[in-house]
Write the structure tokens for this entry.
Amino acid sequence: MADDLWLVVGLGNPGPSYAGNRHNVGFMVLDLLADRVGARFRAHKGRADTVEGRLAGQRVVLAKPKCYMNESGGPVASLRDFFKIPADRIVVVHDELDIPFDTLRLKLGGGDNGHNGLRSLTTSLGTKDYLRTRVGIGRPPGRQDPADFVLKDFSGAERKQLPLLVDRAADAVEALVSGSLETAQNTFHVDPD
């Protein structure tokens, strides 16, 4: 078992047409983390693009599944098995409708709250007990269908704040892998000014 290795997964949909979608904020955070590691994503046999390196002094595998969000559990379970990483050393970065835009929440376990990527992960991993970096995207305006909302790009106003949000989410991941969940929560569960 890889006692000192972390698996950090960003959820999103592959391809340029989805790149700026709210649903792809997990991929955005992973791209920044790969920059921090100083490496580029490469194809891994487990249907994911991965980067191996050090983040906040910890050995990490960064991963972006190469499938649609609702099928991401298979590639993540494959990586878990390949690297022999226990569920409590898996950090999943994903968008969250029920948290206001520009807000982060960190937790261990919990339900999927209608998030198809989390549902797929929980089913494939056989447990809910993995760490989550939840990046708030807010609720859709008016009567817009949440499924449509998450597949739309961030608004102009949101795009101005997005780099800071992605940076804070990357910092939160570093705090999770280098410290404790409670310490990271105390640092990042403050609403931005």
